[in-house]
Structures are given as C-alpha cells and as structure tokens.
Amino acid sequence: MRLPPERPRAVRYPVLAVVFVCAACGLVYELELVALASYLIGDSVTQASVVLSVMVFAMGVGSLLAKRLRCRAAVGFGLVECGLALIGGCSAMVLYAAFAWLGEARYVLVAFSLAIGVLIGAEIPLLMSLIQRGARREQDAAGTVADLFAADYVGALVGGLAFPFLLLPWLGQLTGALVTGAVNAVAGGALVLWLFRRDLTPRSRWLLVGANLAVLAVLGTATALADDFEQAARRAVYGPDVRVAVRTSLQEVVVTGGHGGPPDLFLDGRLRVGGRDEYRYHEALVHPAMNGPRARVLILGGGDGLAAREVLRYADVRAVTVVELDPGVVHLVRTDPELAALNGQAFRDPRVTVVYGDAFRLLRPPGPVQERYDVVISDLPDPGLTAGAKLYSAEFYGLVAARLADGGRLVVHAGSAAARPRTYWTVDATLRAAGFATRPYAAAAPPARATRTAGPPPAGPASPWGYLLAARTPHRPLLALSPTAPRLRSLTPGSLTTAETRIERTRTAERTGLPPSTLVHPRY
C-alpha cells in the first residue's frame, strides 16, 4: 500500500530512527561476540577476524534471502527483528554456557556469527522497501538510499562507542547483550505494528505481537537470571571453590581456594597463580637474574606481588619498582588475606613502588619509568596472547635495554620450549635482534590440574616453564645462583645446568634462524 504523498516525513523519519537503533544493536552484537570469544578462547586477532569475516559473508547471504520477503516487507522486517533480538541478545549467554559446560565455544561462535550476519543482511533490503514509502517521487530513490546508509553508519558509530564505555562497565557482557536485544525488539516491533499496521493482515499482526512478547519475555527472564547463571557457569569453569569474583576496568579476576590452603588467581579465565606450585615458577624467574648487582630492580607485570616477594629476600635490594597494568589486581592482592599472605605482604615493604599503566608507554620517554636498573624481570602474560605481543617485540626490548645499568640483567618468561618451541625461540631471536646476549633455561612445571582454562603458569601438561636470561654484553650472561642466594625449595645450581641442556635440545636449525618479532610484524 502506498501512503499518501502528504505524509512522507511521517514515514521517513521513524524509519531512519529505527535504522539508527538497529545498526547500533547490530554492532553491539558483533563486538560482544569478539570480546567474549577473546576472553574465553584467547587470541583476539583471530577471534575478531573469524567473527567479522563470517558475519560480513552472512550479511550478503541475508541480503539475497530477503528478496523473497520484499513483497511483504513490513511483516518480514518485523520477524527479522524478532529473530535478531532473540539470537543477538542471547548470544553471549549461550556462548558462555558452551564454554563452561561443554568446554568448546568455537563452533558456537561461528554459528552465532552466521545467524546474526544473515539477519542483519536481511534488514537492509527490507528497510529500503519501507523507507521508499516516504518518497514523494521515484526520483527520490538516490536520496532515500543515502539517508538510510547515513543513519546506518551513525548508528554503528554510537553502538561501537556505547559498547566499551557504557554497556560493559554498567551492565557487563551478559546483561548488556540481553538489554540490547530488548531495545532491538522494541524498536523493530514498534515501527511495524504502529507505522505499517495497515500493511498487516490480522493474522500477521497477532503473529508479530505474540513473537515480540515472547522474545521480550525470554530476554527479561534471562536478564533476571543472569547473575545466578553467571555464578553457576563460573563454578563449572573454576570449580566449587570460587571465593572472589570481580570485574575490574580491564579484566575479570577470580580467586579460588584459600580457607587455610593456597589460593589460585585467574585473570580473564586463565590461571595466573597456582597457589600450591607458584614458588617453582617465581624462584626460577627471579633468582638466576639476581646473581650480580641488584640494588635496583624493575618488575614488569607481577601485580600478584610474588616476583617482588622473591626479590625482597635479598637484603641488599634497595628499591623495587613494579609496573602493573591493572590497579584492581594490586588492590585485591593487598586486601585479600590469603593472597597477601602468599606474597609475604610484599606491597607493604617500603622498598616497593607500584606504577600503574602500560609497560610500553611507561618505559618510553618521557614516561615515568626512566631510571636505570640492575635487574629487570619480565613477568608478563604468555607471548602467544595477541594482547601482549608488543611486550615481546624488538622495540620493547630496546626500551628495556635503555633502562639497564652497566652489567644489568633481564629475565623473560618466554613460554614453554617443549610445548611451543617456535614461540620460545622467537622470543630468543627478538632479544638478540635488540642487542642482547641470551641464555636459555627452564623449570619443571607441576602436573596440570583438571581445568578448562589455560595460560602461564602452568605452561601445560608436564611442559616446563621456559625462560631467557639476557644481558647487553658481548658474552653470554652467567647462568648461576648468587652465592648469597636465600634457601630455595625448587632450584639448585645443578638443576639450572640440567634445564639449560634440556632446553637447548629444542633449538633446531630451523628455529635458530627465526626472524624477530616487531610491532609491525608480530611473529607469535
């Protein structure tokens, strides 16, 4: 039915407003999938590539399929929006459930990307049919298309900005997606049932009313149960001992165990501190680098305070600077009795100073960390994680080199040479490209525990943690323990020698000539 020519604006502006809202909701669904997949699966570049490429392909498929609905554009658009609101709104919850109870989220991620992409692609042809009802004459077609795409792009901008700055901090990932779905359903349903009600048969009208009410009921129920669902899923992932679960401005922090036993600390689903065995990792990380001058020590990462605990065991250490990205982690470690006991109240020591921010930015002039240090300890996330790849680049190691005093040493956790040899030896090649001489060594990791999460420590089932001791000298740095080293539980001079011999066996000819990782060409 063609609306009277005197009412073009009454059609065009409401349609453009709904285009704006739908575009914003569609981009929120995309970003939600990327963010949650990066958190659950890891490797944000891969997850973003999968979601966006699959979704763009599916949008093309949806546009083709929508051609069959153009003759009934109003009811078609109403049903598309119902489906999009339901699938997009529930996508985060279903993805999290698949990870928590099935241990696999990749296939679910692809399925949701396809479904959401098809529905978003179907919107455009149907909306163009609807907005043409506001044109005074056929010559307005080009202007109509321009208006539609302008509203679509502006809506995408608003949705893209609202996701990180409003939805995530205020509502979180699960509730944010559900609320977005409800807004999507209300906008689409209101447009069709109000403005284009004359295009609907009584049966179609009741179908859309029932579908929208059902979708809103599902989304509302899921929102009401979101907290209980999240707690149940968290127990499925981390076990029944979840003691603390908080979301800082940067990540989710979960503490399990404690109550008289050693606690475990998870950051974004990855085990960062295994309380029963962390001393093996931190003794091997810290003490070989402390053989020599050590008055001033810089720890990159280490917000758990455990590397600082080992450093402070040397009485001649005068100053320790800890560079930590997330203030929420340090606050939790300072205030949680179990974690504070595990790190020996390291952050209460007057020799310790904590500087918050990105290590790359802070070390780069004129950043606040410009002193020279005898020892630099890189206690950073695994180099295989895309988010931290720049902190394993030749440019970053160049910044570190500028902060080393004469005779200073750098130690880097480089992942497992047994489980990920190419990654480990790429870190070695990158250090060498930055002008360091290196010495590889490892420490035996404990048997892996039954958990669906992964990340250092531990490095993997029976895979030793791999380290690189580096110095800016023409000779290889000395790999030994200081004669005045405190008594250690897991490390001896003999074990260091054995670990170096074992790890050198993984240095094949192919891995010797690996190219270094740089900011513009990350190799991890």
TrEMBL record:
EC number(s) given by UniProt: 2.5.1.16
Family classification: Belongs to the spermidine/spermine synthase family.
Reactions listed under catalytic activity: S-adenosyl 3-(methylsulfanyl)propylamine + putrescine = S-methyl-5'-thioadenosine + spermidine + H(+)
Domain PABS per the UniProt entry, residue ranges: 217-472
Pathway: Amine and polyamine biosynthesis; spermidine biosynthesis; spermidine from putrescine: step 1/1
UniProt feature, compositional bias: Basic and acidic residues: 501-510
InterPro entries hit by this protein: MFS_trans_sf, PABS, PABS_CS, SAM-dependent_MTases_sf, Spermi_synthase
Binding residues annotated for spermidine, in chain numbering: 282, 304
Catalytic site positions: 379
Protein purpose: Catalyzes the irreversible transfer of a propylamine group from the amino donor S-adenosylmethioninamine (decarboxy-AdoMet) to putrescine (1,4-diaminobutane) to yield spermidine.
Residues engaged in binding S-methyl-5'-thioadenosine: 251, 324, 358-359
Subcellular location: Cell membrane
Signal peptide: none
Protein name in the entry: Polyamine aminopropyltransferase
Subunit structure: Homodimer or homotetramer.
